Amino acid sequence: MDTEDRKIPYKKLIGIITSITSFFKSEDLTTTLINIMMHFMDIDIIDIKLAGIKICITVYTTVLPTETILEEYYQGTFAYVIGQASSNIESLVLLKPVLIKFAENNALVGDILDCLWNGINSLAPSVIQRGFDLFAEIALKVKTVDNHLIELILNPPNIDILCRLVNGPNFSQLAINELSTLAEKESSIEALDALIKVSLKTNLVNMIPEILSNINNKQLLLKNIVLINRIIIKTPTIIDTKEIVSSLSHNFSMYSIKEVEEVMESLSSILMRTRTKVTNDDFSILIKNCTNNESLTIVIKSLLTNNAVLIELENNKVFKELIERASFDFSLFEIARHIYLLFNENHDLPNCETIKQITFNALWNSLLKAENNEQRISISDLLLTFNDNRKLPDCIYNYVQTCLDFLLNNPISQNINNSTIYNECRNAALFINECIETSSKFVSLEHFGLKSHRFIVPESIINVSIEADGEKYEISVNQNANVAYLITVISSKLNRDVTSIILYSKGKSVPVQTKLASTDLNFEVRFRAEYDRVPPFTLENHPISLLTNEKYMNHLLELLNSPIGEDIYNILIQIPTPKQFKATDLDPSNSYLFLYTLHYYAQHIDELPNKNEQQKNFEDIICQKFDIIVPEARYLLVLLLDKETKNDLLVTKVLYTLCIEKNPQYFTRIMRKLWEIVSNYEISLDPKILSPIIFKDNAKFRELALKSHLIKSQEFDKVWKIFLSNEEKLNHLKVFTMFEIPPNRYQEVFDTLLPFFDSLDESILAIFANLSEKWSNFPADKIANVLITSYIKCTTKPQSISSNPFKLIMSIIQNNEKMREYILSALNQTIPETTEWNYTPTDSFKCNEKCGLNNLGATCYVNSVLQQIFNIEPLRNFIISNDEFIDPSMQALHKLFTQMMYSQRKFIDMNIFATQWTGWDGACINPREQQDANEFLMCLFSRLEMYPEIYSLINGETETRFVGEGKTISTQKTSFNTLPLIVLGQNSIKDSMKIAAIPEIIENYKVDDNSKPITVESTNKIITLPPYLFFQLKRFDYSIETQTRVKIDQKYEYEDEIDLKEFVEFSGETKYRIIGVILHQGEVDVGHYFSYTKINENQWRCLNDTGVTIVSDNVMKNETYGNPEGSSAYILVYERIDVHSPPDTASNDASGSIVSSISSQIPLSPNPELVDEVQKDNLRLIVDSVYFTEYFADFIFQLMNTTNNNEEVDSIALKYSMSSLVHSSLADSYSKFVSSFSQKFHESENFMNIFRTI
């Protein structure tokens, strides 16, 4: 051992020692090893010192017999090793096997304990906790507790170690007593936290009397309440809660919002478990000590729940005063809302009717005093929420009558400068409008044989075909209506409840927000059996009966000329024209009476004896007042014009005002009517007017303008000058496709537009094609390369396909010999071959950056799940990068995901995947059999289980504890990939999880076959949460009454971000953000799945089989929150918020490991050969999208017939027709080629030779 320390071959030496000791042991060997060990421990080189520790482990665990380590020499030697290792936590942890052996044999004598304890206490603060954990773990192995060990732990008490010792039979009571003493007598918050931490693992019920005796300790009050709650969760016990409630009520003002949430959650749990309530006096003090309305809201929601009312309501003045306060303080609206819904849903609650009336009065006053739309809509939505539709008519009738009486008794015209009266009257009018709209969702005016005052343009009416109960009907509706309106009309026609009706088109249910104009206008009506009842609306209880009352109607007509005229107009326009209304002279200064009268004229214009005179009057108003009247009035005035009008001033005025109009309302309808009138005009427009007409941003307006003779008749130079002054030239090129360009402007136009040619915009292609036909010196060579690349070689995707680029290419061929040869050569090399017949490249390019998946019949459940898995970057990267899967199903998924990642096709064909993926039963996917999306998801997850690193991304764990006779009987850990949530009767994820967390009483529980049956309480807690969390909403249930499966489509809101801290038992990140939703549309047995994936805060990607669209956050939530039409979220996908955290902000996950960027740990490394295969398919898609079009076929045909007897061209034409065109669906184009070939066969022997060669 004389060698220099750093040159000691310690690694080889350790290997030799391990080998020798595996088969040979002797006293001499032991002595030698101890000498080497002691020498290594004396050397201040960390690697050599660790080698000494490894030798120590070998000696004490392998070489020395157990009885020998009890000898004083060996104990002293080990104490020395500990002393030398004490500065490093890793060294101490390495010694754990030896320490455990000493502990299990009661050999932890004073020196060893002292060295270990001193070593741990000398560790750095950042790792000392690990040292305490090690000490506790060793102590728990001791069979006979040594007084010296207790002295070390208790002098001074070490809370961290005591927490661990609670779980050991030898130390449990000692640890609990000491922690209790520290908590109650020394007011140690840390000790109380420790007791809370262990309270669900051990029985602390005997501590309750002592805790209650110290309940007035302000410093410990919150923690004591939390501890009591956890104790009685663990061991159900009846306790007196008066002191708890009283102490909390008097000290409530000292808590923050977060503390209020914590303490109220515990208090409400205690009250429910002990079946006690907060007295009126304590409730009064509690409310008084709430420092803000947020705290107050938490208190009310905690003490008033669907499961229990935890306050005394009889003679509770404070409670009633609190509700009344909500009438003038909107910050208390959430309290009023909670109480209103609770007492409307639970009629058996004490004082229910009284409290409902008080709450309604408060909400009514809040509605009138609402300061903005957000406040007003929140209150009106609440008042118009009904669980039972049978209450709806009477409630709405009473609401409208209350509002009308308020308007009648508060004349706004006499209080025109009173802002309070104005605001209250306006809110009342808006609420009437919302009541009418709500009524319209259930019954239409047509149901009563009535029609509204609003005029609907005849050309806006469309006919819809429906089939219901085997009968076919034709229904006429406004083309701007949506499916929801059509359902109300069908409801009236068929005398069925609106909520029972679902519309289907092409086998799929149609969302209620869908515009009818976007459908094929053919629907099948299906009914939900449980809703087969008609809403009890009659003409007597409908709000129309009030609004047509003479007293109310006269006042409403007067209010049209008031500050709330617009709101009154919106009411009156929805109901029938009152008998007392008389059309008077039109006065545009009275905006809404004027507009209301225009609707009357529009309805009756053909009946008027002075029709021509009135139309002249309309023209005068347009010329003089058009720019100051509201948009809807402009629309009606233009609509009422005589089509034969020749008033140039009127046309110019309307066109200009329309062009500068910023409000888009009625814009499209005005412009269509106007262009219809002026289409044949020929007026030289002033550039000031012409410029906004031609270059307006609205594409439809420009399209109509450019088709009109009025615009085409303008001078080119005038339009060109305006164009040159416009900065957005590329957006306005289309105007010159409508004009004849003068020859003297050819060169200037070409030079000006040439910089934009690379865009291959269809307008610039059309302009240049037009120039090339008329300009003999057209400089085609300047644009040749761009055209050849996009339309001949097809190496880049062209923006559009038309005849224009091929006209330009023909021009190049005819005028440039060198380019001609190059183009012909490129054609020869690029012409695609196909073996399919009637081939059409129907796959357009992918939309919105994602590929869809085609539905093979009933495989939407597969598509929706795969889109969600593909959206999770680390899962996607792993599946794409792993090309060594053994499982054929995973091989198929690997290939599919690679295609989805790199393909440019609109959708991927699922046929191959369906034949290669096998389910639980080993069978392939049956395209005709609809299955459950969650079942497919579970099957997919099961295949990831063999890859622990990946599986951990979606795998969590729960623990079920069975508690009986005051102790934990057993525990059971269960892993999960999805968390199932009960939807029925719940409103949100947290509501459902609280239901799942409620302990379950199990009678006749047996631990094993030999134990006696007892009653136990089982509780579930999450002990591990994965980075990606899937929730399955239990939308499907079994009805005992009908003995059939039913779907639960009730509204169920889910949070964009959610914190699950209250449901877990670990320290680490518990916040998640939503990233995906799988939706089920339809009924139990007839439905459709598709997916939404989140793009940003405001946008979602809708992946509906082959369709990929972008929708707003509001649209997505309206579709997925659940509605009676059968559209509702089924699976929710959440991502933990630390998943994409940068390394310096990374946090610990449930297992204690550091989570930074999970996706960066699984980089994307695709199979190059597979990617190359996909890229070749992408190029083929581009080629096909050009070569299999009638425009390209016409180009080849023209090329062949303009270059007679050219062998190369004839060869290209023959090759194209026989390799591509003959297989295509372009039958007419192919027929032209055949006719031309037939003629050439007769005329040229050379052509016959070319044909034989090909």
UniProtKB/TrEMBL annotation:
Record-annotated USP domain positions: 851-1137
PROSITE patterns to which the protein is assigned, alphabetical: USP_1, USP_3
Pfam families assigned: UCH (PF00443)
GO molecular function term, any single one: cysteine-type deubiquitinase activity
Cellular-component GO terms for this entry: cytosol; nucleus
Top-level taxon of the source organism: Eukaryota
GO biological process terms, semicolon-separated: protein deubiquitination
Name of the protein described by the UniProt record: USP domain-containing protein
Organism of derivation: Tritrichomonas foetus
